[in-house]
Specification:
By secondary structure, this protein is of the alpha+beta class. The chain is built from 9 helices and 12 strands.
């Protein structure tokens, strides 16, 4: 999806059209006065034309149709799919593609839960068939809200949305200095949630956040529940330098979330994504400390998933993808540990076709 354009400043200005009284008095106008009247008429025509031009929408601009200001008022570094007043996706032409296969793998979501996932799609799209296969997987699992990472092609993400009727998407527009990209984003079912107040966090702090997290407000349809979601993809690598960067990133995230909870903001916050950090490494206690050592404030939900022997990163059998919530979201999150669908078992060549990460899914007992 392309960055949403703002209204263009065309430089048009209304000119002062006032003029003095005709010279010479009496019933007749002299030639100079007639000339001034004719000139005034032309000025009025010109003003009307210029006024219409200034009031028009610039080429390529579109209404966001999401909660927020009339002008969108979203961070200009984030691209948002257009939706209508009902929240239905209007930017993806689903007629271009056949309906997705909803029976490729087993269903994960359900009508009685809000099904939220994080999924690193590894250099999406990996192959020519990746987009279709991913759409089929999303439709089969019946997920409501997916935090995605490693989107390397905006057009491919657009096609993924287009292949999923009833879904819309939000995608960061951050790119590396080289011009390459690994974007975070959100893919969501518009009948289940609305997404608004999208922004990038920690921009400019690329040393510890090489991919700026995406933050948004999620409002669950047909309920009074809303929460802030933060999508992360922390620094990869096993070298101590990279581990230190993850430690600093988690510390910065906790400080930021704490400031929101203690301030006049939403205290129901979910942080999820590819943390590139397991929970049982030698220094995991130090790296995860800001969240694990404040159990009265946070729950690292994937601790239970890890303890159940699950893994999200297939090549090294590690649990690198996590979901963290503030305590204010405990009730909405429910008591069920996040699960990891075994797509690599259900789908031949999953790693080659889709990703080396498996999705991690939280089934929240909220009925959209």
């Amino acid at each position: 999806m392309n960055e949403t354009s703002r209204r263009a400043a065309s430089g048009c200005a209304l000119h002062d059209t006032s003029s003095g009284s005709p010279a010479g008095g009496g019933d007749a106008l002299d030639r100079a006065s007639v000339g001034r009247v004719r000139a005034l008429r032309w000025w009025l025509v010109l003003v009307l034309l210029l006024s219409a031009a200034c009031g028009g929408r610039s080429s390529g601009e579109r209404d966001l149709g999401l909660p927020g200001d009339a002008a969108g008022n979203f961070d200009t570094n984030v691209s948002v799919d257009a939706t209508d007043d009902t929240g239905a996706d209007t930017s993806a032409d689903t007629s271009l593609y056949p309906p997705p296969n909803k029976n490729l793998v087993g269903t994960v979501g359900g009508d009685q839960t809000l099904d939220v996932a994080t999924w690193n799609l590894r250099q999406f799209p990996a192959t020519a068939s990746t987009i279709k296969t991913t759409a089929d997987l999303v439709a089969s699992m019946d997920l409501d809200l997916i935090a995605v990472q490693e989107i390397t092609d905006d057009a491919a993400f657009d096609e993924l949305v287009a292949r999923l009727p009833g879904y819309a998407g939000v995608l960061s527009t951050h790119v590396f200095p080289s011009g390459e990209q690994q974007k975070d984003g959100l893919l969501y079912k518009t009948s289940a949630v609305k997404v608004s107040n999208v922004e990038l966090l920690f921009e400019g702090e690329y040393d510890i956040f090489p991919r700026p997290p995406v933050q948004a407000l999620v409002t669950v349809e047909s309920s009074s529940v809303d929460f802030t979601i933060i999508v992360v993809h922390l620094k990869a690598g096993v070298q101590q330098e990279n581990r230190d960067k993850r430690r600093l990133a988690i510390k910065a995230l906790e400080t930021y979330v704490r400031s929101r909870v203690d301030g006049p903001f939403d205290n129901q916050i979910m942080i999820l994504g590819d943390f590139n950090q397991d929970l049982d490494d030698d220094d995991s206690g130090l790296i995860w400390g800001p969240f694990l050592d404040n159990a009265d404030r946070y729950s690292v939900l994937t601790v239970a998933t890890k303890n159940a022997g699950k893994e999200s990163y297939l090549p090294f059998h590690r649990m690198l993808d996590h979901i963290v919530i503030t305590s204010a979201l405990d009730q909405e999150a429910g008591n069920e540990a996040p699960l990891v669908p075994d797509l690599n078992v259900q789908l031949n060549n999953y790693q080659d076709l889709v990703s080396d990460h498996l999705p991690v899914v939280l089934r929240m007992p909220i009925t959209p």
